[in-house]
Specification:
Helix content is 22%, strand content 32%. It is α/β, with parallel strands linked by helices. A 7-stranded mixed sheet has the order 1-2-3-4-5-6-7, covered by helices on one side.
Length: 194
Amino acid sequence: MLEIKQYGDVTEFKAAKTIMGWPIYKTHFYYLNGLLIDTGPHHIADEIIEALQNYPPEKVVITHQHEDHIGNCRRINEEFGAPIYAHPKAANILANPPEIEIYRKIMWGNAPAVKTTPLDRYIEAGGYRLEAIHTGGHSYDHTCYFEPQNRWLFAGDFYLGENLNGFMIGENIVEHLTGLKKLISLSLKLSFVA
């Protein structure tokens, strides 16, 4: 399943594998004037690649190395020639994806290996300049992207929800709170979460 919505210059893709017609655990990724922020799960790669024909990525930037965010990096790189940018700590994981738990394989699929270019401070695309803000917390490499002109934040999986009752292996609550302090100071107008 893939749904597409437009919010001005930002295109939102909502992706999920379906079982018996029901979408399971939706993942969001975004397109902004040639820049693709995350790539969605590998299980629906063909559908994503087909949709991206209307939104050809010139560059891809990754919020973090989980398979629902990086699942189509390699395919997009091969199909569109778009370089993949990620936090330096994510490079080894994307080049050598580890074994993942069975539920993650079922939900999103394994992410094929891909080479990335380290991104430290910002990325530019289509007249926009997004600042990379390393937040950690959800994943040691988790990075949000802030567009200061419109005060937009592309937050990946960095958000607080009601009734959170657990964390994934590898999540760090102290880093999450430290990252939250960084983001609070930005006076955001709009946050795009995965």
